[in-house]
């Protein structure tokens, strides 16, 4: 039976109380249109998502429509992105062509347009568990400098990398300060990919040297203000999960099963973390049958949901390649509490 209070439902799950397994879905533009044609709009209300998410506005939204922005869009940091009708596009022109911040000015976190809708959103969603995305750190640095260049900089220009991450962290902390002063909500989310399909993008030792301290600042500021901490990182990040626990992480997302053994994660870290994700997106949702999708959802609820600490979700935002019948099977079975 579905709990009546969505907020307490998620709080109980985070605190490892065995409950019906809650679910959450993030949709790309194509999958959102398909879902809303079946279930109604807005999709979060139509399928009764217990978790609601938002973020401060950006001059380049996550999904920038080419009909509105043209072939490219520029974000607050000055990075040029391709635009797309099916996904978020890609960073195609870094803003830092050399390993220096000389002449570069970070954006101002307090620009009014960023927060103009958040108060209304927080009030409207107050009966749900509200999570606000506050930014990205290492990932943002790769956009600004280019992935290959930044990986070289870690070895050849370490002071530059630390200065760059410091500037991005200060922008995130400034954003959080405004959010905490003005609005009521339950958790903050950091989006920061550290893994590839098989291993981390940089060694665990370098992650600890360059990134961990800044992430700890962000977590600590959130916890100081009574917020739970939600971390998104794609890929295999097993070596640093103990570090994330040590600095205060509450919810790890999206635990891609193609990259990590999620049942090992549950066994090893299940009493310290709440996991969110775990449905296979690279094969099952794309090539499986609706019956197979339903069976996997049932299995995850039974195994990952044991003793609480699990929120059902795909291992990545639902993409355009997921057949409608599999999308519906996943949602319907998730809602079958």
Write the layout of secondary structure elements.
Elements: H1 6-14, H2 29-39, H3 43-46, E1 51-54, H4 66-69, E2 72-74, E3 80-82, E4 91-93, H5 118-124, E5 129-135, H6 138-145, H7 147-156, H8 158-182, E6 187-191, H9 204-224, E7 228-232, H10 241-246, E8 251-253, H11 262-269, E9 274-279, H12 284-287, H13 290-303, E10 310-314, H14 324-334
Helix pairs in contact: 6-7, 7-8, 8-9, 13-14
Compose a concise summary of this entry:
Helix content is 42%, strand content 13%. With 337 residues, the chain is of the alpha/beta class. The chain has one domain: TIM Barrel, CATH 3.20.20.210.
Main traits of this protein?
13% strand; single chain; seven-stranded parallel sheet; 14 helices; globular; alpha/beta; TIM Barrel; three-stranded antiparallel sheet
Please give a structural write-up:
The chain has 337 residues and is of the alpha/beta class. The chain has a single domain (6-334), classed as TIM Barrel, CATH 3.20.20. 42% of the residues lie in helices and 13% in strands. The chain has helices at residues 6-14, 29-39, 43-46, 66-69, 118-124, 138-145, 147-156, 158-182, 204-224, 241-246, 262-269, 284-287, 290-303, 324-334; strands at residues 51-54, 72-74, 80-82, 91-93, 129-135, 187-191, 228-232, 251-253, 274-279, 310-314. The protein has a 7-stranded parallel β-sheet with strand order 1-5-6-7-8-9-10. Strands 2-3-4 form a 3-stranded antiparallel β-sheet, with no helix packed on it. Helix 6 (138-145) crosses helix 7, helix 7 (147-156) crosses helix 8 (158-182) and helix 13 (290-303) packs parallel to helix 14 (324-334). The protein is globular.
């Amino acid at each position: 039976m579905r709990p009546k209070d969505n907020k307490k439902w998620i709080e109980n799950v985070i605190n490892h109380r065995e409950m019906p397994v809650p679910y959450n879905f993030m949709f790309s533009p194509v999958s959102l249109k398909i879902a809303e044609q079946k279930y109604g709009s807005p999709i979060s209300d139509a399928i009764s998502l217990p978790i609601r998410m938002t973020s401060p506005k950006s001059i380049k939204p996550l999904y920038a429509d080419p009909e509105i922005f043209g072939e490219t869009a520029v974000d607050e940091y000055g990075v040029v992105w391709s635009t797309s009708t099916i996904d978020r596009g890609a960073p195609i022109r870094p803003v830092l062509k050399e390993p220096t911040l000389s002449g570069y000015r970070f954006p101002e976190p307090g620009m009014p347009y960023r927060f103009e809708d958040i108060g209304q959103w927080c009030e409207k969603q107050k009966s749900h568990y509200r999570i606000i995305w506050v930014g990205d750190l290492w990932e943002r640095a790769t956009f600004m400098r280019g992935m290959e260049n930044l990986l070289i900089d870690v070895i050849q220009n370490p002071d530059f990398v630390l200065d760059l991450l410091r500037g991005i962290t200060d922008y995130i902390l400034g954003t959080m300060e405004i959010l905490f002063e003005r609005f009521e909500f339950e958790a903050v989310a950091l989006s920061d990919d550290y893994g590839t399909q098989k291993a981390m993008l940089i060694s665990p030792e370098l992650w600890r040297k360059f990134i961990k301290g800044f992430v700890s600042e962000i977590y600590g500021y959130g916890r100081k203000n009574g917020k739970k901490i939600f971390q998104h990182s794609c890929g295999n990040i097993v070596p640093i999960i103990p570090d994330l626990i040590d600095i205060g992480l509450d919810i790890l997302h999206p635990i891609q099963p193609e990259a990590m053994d999620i049942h090992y994660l549950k066994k090893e870290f299940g009493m310290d973390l709440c996991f969110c994700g775990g449905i296979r997106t690279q094969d099952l949702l794309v090539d499986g049958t609706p019956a197979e999708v339903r069976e996997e959802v049932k299995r995850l609820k039974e195994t990952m949901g044991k003793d609480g600490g699990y929120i059902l979700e795909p291992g990545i935002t639902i993409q355009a390649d997921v057949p409608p019948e599999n999308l519906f099977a996943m949602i319907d079975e998730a809602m079958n509490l």
